[in-house]
Amino acid sequence: MAVIGELLKRAIDVYGFIVSDPDPVAAQREVLLQLIKKAKLTAFGKKYNFSQILASDDPVQAFQQAVPVHDYDRMNADWWHYLLEGHQNVTWPGGQQYFALSSGTTSTSKAIPVTDDMLEAIRKAGIQQVMSLKNFDLPSDFFEKQIMMLGSSVSLIEKDDHQEGEISGISAANIPGWFSGYYKPGVEIASIQDWDERVHRIAQEAPSWDIGSLSGIPSWIEMMLKEVIAYNRLNTIHDIWPNLQVYTTGGVAFEPYRKSLETLLARPLTYIDTYLTSEGYLATQKRPDTSSMALMVDNGIFFEFVPFVDANMDEAGRVREDATILSLAEAEENTDYVLLISTVSGAWRYMIGDTVMITDKKRAEIQITGRTKHFLNIVGEQLSVHQMNDAMQLMQQQFDIEIQEFVVSAVRKEGEYINKWYIGSNRTVDNQTFAESLDRELRQANKNYNVARTKALKGVEAEVIPVEQFYRWSEEFKKLGGQAKIPRVMKEADLLEFGEYIKSLS
């Protein structure tokens, strides 16, 4: 096996040497041309004259002028509902075997088409991620070890002409045969629908596995590791998986979870961030000296960037018809953008709801800065999730606690608006002291928030609660495991309901 590991490492090194990263701008133009050419005879392509766009001197500009921006509701109402009714050649040639069910931070259920071309693009993105491991100086024996991919159940929902499930489950159900020997927990355990039962089986089988890397959302990875440690009566996870070296994270920001996760380890891991959504595999971290991720610029997805300013967004958090929209060639570094994608699954100028910042344009590297609908700006606070995460890291240090989850909303109290926070931690602290410290930090870090605090935002309240209460709420009202995420920002009514649920637990 050591020989196999050395051969794999050498093959990756050689492949990475031969195949260099493409020029992002040129690659993106070519991707758009391929998308338009393949979809020109679909119902969508005919409506928006894709053949005419292809003949244009500037196809990128022609595409942007001809095709409107879509969010899920518009895409589904105008086009995708036909796919669920069995129609083909709607927004992409042919039909599809799968629909990805979104279980993200919104309450609205979404069914997003996953074509064969998208599955192939996800596989290619996975290969790019593996190839980039050459940059992380990992030992040869790492490439012999097994990979724990903790996602959604691979037991998909059978419909008349397709299957439905979360994107991680669909991807795991389609892993190539050669990879099955490396993949854990394996199809049998990964097919278990019940989260607690699935994790219990992982804990039982854990001693027989030699795990070298983990992959999954931080909160669920942490819960799984705790169960394995408790069931097998260990001090750290390295007692049972001594060769664990890499954690591939994604779905949410990792930093808020780092402190609590590392209490379960004998030594820190190599952390690699990824950007896999229900709509596709968008980006992956390719080098160790940055926390940014490189967009998959040559793999079936065309990216556009909308400056995240009030003039470009409507009251519901959607991109306005007359918004300024930029290609990668036109976008700038260190600016918040709403991300639009056009893909080989037939999503066109589609707003996935994330905001990003380009940190290195030459490398097409980005960081996720938040969600368009999870940007707190009820009375002028203009707080992004990115800023909230930074503040929580400082609160962890100041109060010597672990903060794994939090949620906030602007709520009315005695006729005035306040920001109400619930903080999920490993232990409680004085709520008033915490609120004052959090408020002080946000006022120093965000001038808009500081102005709001002198005007319409009259106060800040915080309740520090056991993080398990967040997970109990998630299990009861959302989906536990897989790609389920806990929101960072709620509407006032939703937060009040959340607060009532928390009260019921005490």
Structure commentary:
The chain has helices at residues 2-18, 24-39, 43-47, 50-54, 59-66, 72-84, 116-131, 167-173, 187-190, 195-205, 218-231, 255-262, 385-399, 431-445, 447-453, 467-477, 492-505, and strands at 98-102, 110-114, 146-149, 157-158, 163-165, 183-184, 211-215, 246-250, 270-277, 280-284, 293-295, 301-307, 326-327, 336-343, 350-360, 365-371, 403-413, 416-425, 457-466. It has 506 residues and is of the alpha/beta class. It has 2 domains: 1-372, Rossmann fold; 385-505, GMP Synthetase, Chain A, domain 3 (2-Layer Sandwich). The strands form 3 sheets. The chain has a 12-stranded mixed β-sheet with strand order 6-3-7-8-9-10-11-16-15-14-12-13. It has a 4-stranded mixed β-sheet with strand order 2-1-5-4. Strand 17 (403-413) and strand 18 (416-425) form a beta hairpin. Helix 13 (385-399) packs across helix 14 (431-445) and helix 14 packs across helix 15 (447-453). It is globular, with a radius of gyration of 23 Å. The protein starts with a helix and ends with a helix. 43% of the residues are buried.
Helix coverage percent: 25-40%
Range of strand content: 15-25%
CATH architecture of the largest domain: 3-Layer(aba) Sandwich
What Rg is obtained from the alpha carbons, in whole angstroms?
Answer: 23 Å
User: What's the pLDDT, averaged over the residues?
Assistant: 87
Annotation, overall tally of beta strands: 19
Structural descriptors:
506 residues, alpha/beta, Rossmann fold, GMP Synthetase, Chain A, domain 3, 2 domains, twelve-stranded mixed beta sheet, four-stranded mixed beta sheet, disordered N terminus, GH3 auxin-responsive promoter, GH3_C, GH3_M, GH3
